[in-house]
Specification:
Radius of gyration: 19 Å
Order of helices and strands: EHEHHEHEHEHEHEHHEEEEEHEE
Bound molecules: N,N-dimethyl-L-histidine
Number of strands: 14
Strand order of the largest sheet: 1-5-4-3-6-7-14-13
Number of helices: 10
Largest sheet: 8 strands, mixed
Distance between the termini: 30 Å
Helix content: 25-40%
Strand content: 25-35%
């Protein structure tokens, strides 16, 4: 078994600078990557198990039902790379089917990734596992030094691509193309456009886990930036915007209030929103158009129950 964990220390200044910049915008906005402190990771795993959030279960079923076809379309690979691997659960199916020699996983939440990747490596004694604790949106290119030679499959499941506006999604896929190299392939999973009421429910679960996930961002800013948000004075508010084709997630101020963050004061008017996430929903042709502009020709695709997986390369 070979396992290594390399941490690219998260720069607290990035969080501080991004938050101060985002709060100076109108409407106020904070990038969704900052949801994922340790509590945020736990809450996200719990979201994935909520009855209303079908996305994760549907992807799991699709990958189970079509694994043989998917593996045959991919063919032999030497390495699987997964940016944003989280608990490293999804990649296991592909490891079983493709038996690569190397796995490189990355996640902004370094400590949970370290634990998950080490546990995985104990189950796959012949696999060389490299875990990179990094903000891949920032540092993706630094991963190149940790890739073996040979055929790479870049795996980007979970509809994470939906958390980027289309231009940023195209830019990210372009960087994936460069990282994977000319022989590289990309397997990407994403949530499809569907009944807006189903989408609405998925981000407004009855148990309130998505609300807790959204509000946890304020607790993180209080802890890490010495902010003085009062979470009970903000409301989780998520809705599907069919014109833009996305879920929008906000924290709406329930009162007129001032908040101090890292020595600066920000005013929230009653009803003012802090935007925290976009989650775009797609038709298959919309993703293939984005991928095309990033230099990825479509090879094959699968669709089941409102979720799609596409293979590029
Ligand atoms: C990680 N990402 C794909 C999730 C999504 O559905 O956009 C994050 C999430 N936000 C609220 N619920 C889940």
């Amino acid at each position: 078994m070979s396992f290594s964990f390399i941490n690219f220390p998260a720069d607290r200044d990035d969080l501080r600078a991004d938050v101060l910049t985002g709060l100076a915008l109108s409407p106020k906005s904070i990038p969704p990557k900052y949801f994922y402190d340790e509590q945020g990771c736990r809450l996200f795993e719990s979201i994935c198990a909520q009855p209303e959030y079908a996305l994760t279960r549907t992807e799991h079923t699709l990958m189970r039902d079509w694994l043989g076809d998917i593996a045959a379309a991919i063919g032999p690979v030497d390495c699987i790379i997964e940016p944003g691997a989280g608990d490293c659960a999804k990649v296991r199916r592909l490891l079983d089917a493709l038996r690569p020699a190397h796995l490189v996983v990355m996640d902004i939440a370094g400590a949970p990734l370290d634990a998950a990747a080490e546990a995985l490596s104990r189950n796959y004694p012949d696999l060389a596992v490299t875990a990179l604790g990094m903000d891949f949106i920032h540092d993706l290119e630094a991963a190149a030094a940790h890739l073996p030679a040979g055929r790479c499959l870049l795996y980007y499941p979970g509809s994470s691509i939906g958390n980027f506006p289309p231009d940023a999604a195209a830019a990210l896929l372009t960087r994936f193309r460069r990282l994977a190299g000319p022989e590289g392939q990309l397997l990407i999973g994403f949530d499809l456009k569907k009944d807006p009421l189903l989408l609405h429910a998925a981000y407004n679960d009855a148990a309130g886990v998505t609300a807790a996930f959204n509000l946890n961002l304020l607790a993180r800013l209080n802890r890490e930036l010495g902010a003085n948000f009062e979470p009970s004075r903000f409301r989780h508010y998520a809705f599907y915007n069919p014109v833009a084709g996305r879920i929008e997630m906000h924290l709406v101020s329930l009162a007129e209030q001032d908040v101090n963050i890292a020595g600066q004061r920000f005013h929230f008017a009653l009803g003012e929103t802090l935007h925290t996430e976009h989650s775009f929903k797609f038709r298959r042709d919309e993703v293939s158009a984005i991928a095309q502009t990033a230099g990825w020709p479509l090879k094959a695709e699968w669709e089941q129950d409102g979720f799609a997986v596409q293979l590029y390369g």
